[in-house]
Amino acid sequence: MYTSFQDLGRPEVAKYGLPASGAMDQLSMVLANLLVGNQARCTVLETALQGLRILAHNPIQIAITGADQNPHVDKAPVPNYTALTLNAGQELFFRNIQQGCWSYIAFAGGIHSTEFLGSCSVYPSAEMGRPLEKGQCVEVLEQDDGKRRRAFSLPISYRGDVLDEQKAFRVLPGPQLDHFSKEGIETFYGKNYIVSPQCNRQACRMDGPPIALQKEPGIITDPTPPGSIQVPGDQKPIILLRDGQVTGGYAKIGILSKVDLNRLSQLRPGKKTQFVEITRKQAVELFREQKRLIQRAKSYIQDL
Fold first, then answer.
1. Residues in the chain with pLDDT < 50?
2. pLDDT of residue 31
């Protein structure tokens, strides 16, 4: 089990050498908050794979989004993307992973957590909080309006495609394409790659055919935003994620589109991927589409 407090991350901290951090799948995190009437960036619990168990000491309203970990309350299964109430003494637990990797649990009113540089996102490498431990008590705050909403589910059409494992991952051309041969670029976009077991919140290593270089992989260190796809000396791509370092010294063949960073984070080791090149204009439009999806979901929930 790896469970931590997360929100949308720390804005404008790269100048201090710190990653923005934040939820691995930020779309799912936002939708969880909307389902319980919170602001989009409220702190949630993010948990990987399975094993988390939560005991309610008081009645609380929650919503679970992201990965399908077969959630149960006591002995009864409960659905994802649904606002539901845990009564005092009831236990929420995840029986086994069905699809995806990261799940999000939002609590109506939000969670009391410590803020570091404008965010409550846990980033242990800089001693900004730490993952939850067995027996730890999490304080849930009161809702602003004091109202408990009735149970309801968010229709599939408002949930996005974060668990779609078939769609190719869209990539903008990287700033060091001259380090790669034509054959290497064709390999990257034309072959399948598999998520390796070497994955965490910092980066995801991919297994697959080597990407041929025509220059040394090392470069003068430059910025590496989330989604940067570096190719080190073993010629296998490494995709930087939310906790990834903010500068790096390996050539980047591409930058994963911002919306697909959510989807990539939900891939478990052993899953197959394929990459496709897009333009900056297309990447911007994808991001706008995601914002429109969130707004439609918000309107749907408010109209209930």
1. none
2. 98
Would you state the pLDDT for residue 109? 94
| Res 50: pLDDT | 75
As a whole number of angstroms, the distance between CA 222 and CA 247 comes to 5
**How high is the pLDDT of residue 128?**
96
Q: Distance (Å, rounded) from C-alpha 122 to C-alpha 289?
A: 29
Report residue 191: phi and psi, to 5°: -115, 165
Q: Give pLDDT, residue 151.
A: 78
pLDDT digits (tens, 9 = 90+) for 238-282: 999 999 999 999 999 999 999 999 999 999 999 999 999 999 999
Residue 177's pLDDT is 96
- HEC sequence for the chain: CEEEEECCCCCCCHHHCCCCCCCCCHHHHHHHHHHCCCCCCCCEEEEECCCCEEECCCCEEEEEEEEECCEEECCEECCCCEEEEECCCCEEEECCCCEEEEEEEEECCCECCCCECCECCCEHHHCECCCCCCCCCCCECCCCCCCCCCCEECCHHHCCCCCCCCCCEEEEECCCHHHECHHHHHHHHHCCEEEEEEECCCEEEEECCCCCECCCCEEEEEECCCCEEECCCCCCCEEECCCCCCEEEECEEEEECHHHHHHHHCCCCCCEECEEECCHHHHHHHHHHHHHHHHHHHHHHHCC
What's the pTM value of the predicted model, to 2 decimals? 0.95
Q: Is 292 exposed, middle or buried (0-12, 13-18, 19+ CB in 10 A)?
A: exposed
Domains of the chain: 2-160 (no CATH), 169-290 (2.40.100.10)
Rounded to whole angstroms, how far apart are CA atoms 71 and 93?
6
